[in-house]
Amino acid sequence: MLELMDRHVAANTMIDLAAVHVRHGSLRDAITCYERAVEAMREQGDHHGEAQARRALEAARARAAAQEGERRSKARTAS
User: Backbone phi, then psi, for 26, in 5-degree steps?
Assistant: First the structure.
């Protein structure tokens, strides 16, 4: 039981850490943390936690894609 609780705490910690990365603009690190949280929640059978982590993961991926698009657009404009 303790191991299961430890994994649940670790998964929630990964979600919290990912949110910090997002706030600091480290989206690749955030995505990695969210992916680990999704996996941990899935392993535990926590469907609600997994869904929350997946939503946050997809939002971080979308934000990263938007930033990459902006970066490419600026690079083309500067050329």
Answer: -95, 70
- The pTM assigned to this predicted structure is 0.85
Give the closest residue to 56 by CA, choosing from 17, 10, 7: 17
Q: What is the 8-class DSSP label of residue 27? A: H
The first and second tokens of residue 20, run together, are 């910090």
- H-helix or E-strand containing 52? helix 47-78
Residue type, 59: A
pLDDT of the residue at 2 = 47
Give the whole-angstrom CA distance, residue 49 versus residue 68: 28
Q: How many CA atoms lie within 13 A of 71 on its CB side?
A: 6
